[in-house]
Write a structure and sequence with these properties.
The chain is of the alpha/beta class. 36% of the residues lie in helices and 17% in strands. It has a 10-stranded mixed sheet, with helices on both faces.
Amino acid sequence: MPQRVLIAGTSPLLAGRLAARCLSAAAGTEVVLLSAAVSRPGAPAPDRRELAGWVARCGGGDAGPAGEPYVPGAGRLTVVCAEPEGAAAELTAWTADQVWGVVPGWDRSPARAARADAVLTGALLAALPALGARRYVHVGPDTAPEEGRTHRVRRDLERLAVQACLDAGVSWRVLRTAPVVDGRAADLGECPPGPHRLLWALRSVRAEVEDRVPDWFERHPLRVTGVAGLGLSLLTGERAAGELWRAGAPAGLPDGFATVSRPAPVPLAGVLARAGAVHGIDVRPVPDREDFGAADRLLDLRLDDVRRQAVRLRDAAPGSGDGRAPDQAGSGTAPAGAPSLSAAGQWALFGSVRAGRTPPCPARGDAGLRRRVVEVAGRPLVLFEGGAGEGPPLLVLNALGQGPGFLSRLCAHLAPHHRVVTWQVRGTERDDPAWDTRRQLDDLDAVLAAVGGGRAHLLGWCTGAKIATAFQRHRPEAVASLVFLNATFRQNGRWDGMDTKYESDLAAVCRALDRRPDKAARMLDLLAPGAAGGRGSPGTRDAGVLGVLSGALTDEVRRPFRDAEVLVRYARQLVDLWRLDSAAQAARVTVPVLFVGSEFDGISSPERAREAARRFPHARYAELAVAGHYAPHDRPALVAELVSEFVRAPREVADLVRYAEITWHIDTEGTAR
């Protein structure tokens, strides 16, 4: 008898594979695929057309006329996309004989995954009577008690599902699966735990290094530690979906639980070696971190949750050279498991993952924003605007004297989630009149009026942080929140010992030029930052290759130093800005504030920014490890994720974006860590 199956999930990868299985299983079955994937910077959720194409590929279909995806059983698949919070409204339009809730918790952020999975599951369970469902199948992660809070949260969600089914008189199955590895995961905006995080770590570190020194990996290996005696289970998405379908779909199965068997683990050192080779990286396990360089440290941090997902191999004794205590080495001893993926299979799979798409990240240009010119104070002001998203716009304040290139990558990652507006800061071009802080505030007023926003979120990079703070005091009702990236809070006359060497040198030269502009030509070569921003604070390790300036910024960084007249204008703007005591205004700032700093910022003092953050009543301070002053350019997806989650949920941001490469110095109001 024909039936309708509703498959709703936060994982389009797994839900799509299950939809393809369902369509192939019975000729008369109609499938509604409800994707409630959470879209975030660096991992955009797929749209309806992409999901239909994914189901087609899983079912062996090809592109149809005009490139439209052909799905086996065409006309029997309906794809719906919604945020988890919007799933309840979408469910009101449907009935279904069988409902699948696919909530494996594969978001990089455990807190975000738990919230999205709980919201979707709650919507599905509440809708069961109205849907007319006779059966409910819950697909969650296979967690172990050693995983603590994550394990408890997932088991609570299972108990909620069972109880709701009992109350509604609906038969049920609870299925559990380990994370999968799948060549199409990146296409669908997913990066499941385990093997995918390992591949992402290698790919992301390589991209960040090669942006600075393209041939660096031809001469240098990457060193890793903490991998001896550990293994990863390489469960393919196709195999997981097949076993889940067999365990949950057949009619007549009794209520109960089932777990997809994990393949026998593959030694982590071998997985790293093959994955590294696929990415053109010589990966070398070492016993400790003593000689780690900056790139090694960054990889080590990004492999942190991979090691947590790993299991101890049966023949590995505790403490067998991996540098960690037994209770830190993954989630227990490995079971025997099914046959593991062969070496040849690993090569092919890792290669297909690498070939997957990556989100757009322009090296130069305006990030796809539209250019518009408005007149302010009788002179043209060039705006760049675009993007999507509800709520107040996000106004991006560039540093004094700088062009748009520093922030183009960041804006490209923010635009899919926010209405983004930035502009060419005035006052240093040859035909500009003197443009002090007061006039910068006038420009901000004009920008807000031009974009039609009564309120806005303000994001200030470097000196833009002080302008944003001054504007909040100028028009507090117009500011929804403040974000400060690599902020400088330097002030004239305050000798607190927190200046970076670059700040000290710049201040001395700017004061001299303010008095003697005729000396500018002789000082041009003294100030261009070059690789500054990657040296770090006294006592910290050298940023090494990650302290080298990105080639895309070579021209941008010299913009204020290209001739004597521009340098004098720039120096006078800074001297004027340094007269502001922004930190003294902090206590009266009532909106949420996010600081994002960098461990190796050699231009703007991280110590002073942390000290300033403690004065804001509602501030959080996140520091990026092994990053420099140009972190918004070098790690745009991570910075955009911090910004997006903060704008959406300022009180929760420290839980939602909590990764090993981020240290939260202030994560609750007024509490320093």
